[in-house]
Input
Amino acid sequence: MWKIGNIEINSRVVLAPMAGISNSAFRRIAKEMGCGLVYAEMVSDKAITYKNKKTIDMLQMTEDERPIAQQIFGSDVDSFVEAAKFIYENMKPDIIDINMGCPVPKVSIRAQAGSGLLKHPEKIKEIVSAVVKSVPIPVTVKIRSGWDKDSINAVEVAKICEEAGASAITVHGRTRSQGYSGKVDLDIIKKVKESVSIPVIGNGDVVDIESAKKMLDYTGVDAIMIGRGSLGNPWIFKELNEYFEKGIIIPKPTPQERIDMIFHHMDYLKEIKSEKIVCLELRTHIAYYIKGLKDASFYKNKIYQTKSINDIILLLNEYRKELGD
Ligand SMILES: Cc1cc2nc3c(=O)[nH]c(=O)nc-3n(C[C@H](O)[C@H](O)[C@H](O)COP(=O)(O)O)c2cc1C
Output
């Protein structure tokens, strides 16, 4: 058990915010698999202040996802505050998270939001303290190691965030220029952990027991955040919990369990999305769920041609038969 502010969290493994992925359906599955804390995908502060319907719809969350953090990206103090208040009052998440890691040019360069904020430490202080004052729940910040290799400033930024009242920091050990390439820098995560007294969540390239153990042991972080390693593999939360809590290595999911999980994921998606969107989103997830199984690319291609949920169900049932017991 560890805590962010007064929020108790019962596993050291956390789900990363992932745009287009970490919606309520995926988060519920992660929680069922033992994930300690889920981060909802980022929403734009401006879009919230304009009451953009698509953005407001993205805020959907269910009780079984708690504790949950809602992430916001932006660059303007007033919109950040207005968005945080709106989200707190309407959705009552347990935590508000501020995005200072998004590398997408539209966000980081044009809007000076996401990782663009890393270049403006004075603005970071202003934003974090204003958001902290505006809501009665913990505020966390997710950062990268820096803008580029010549301006690695995660330690400085983390200290500013702590001083401004942030309750925890997540560090993705890559610079903005690296995007998702290269290897995660565990040294910078370790340095941040040694520099602040609020909890630090280490993030980047955790995909299995070995990488999780390395992140925890080497950096000393309070928790680890998993993004891509959970795609098609929500079992990773259970695998890591069992290993860290009991020293047990659980068996990998069987092909049948993988197909069952797709149906389960589909049911949750159907609760929140239109049929068209369910089909589109599910395609991506199915590709991950079946990766490495017999005839996976054949079925992946067939699933990409489907136009209805019913077509997907028929194909999955056919695939399930082919995979046998
Ligand atoms: C598809 C995708 C969408 C992402 N969206 C967000 C986001 O909305 N907010 C954010 O802070 N990070 C986002 N990230 C970054 C992840 O949260 C995480 O920091 C990064 O993937 C490194 O962790 P990993 O190696 O475990 O995937 C996204 C990553 C991916 C792959």
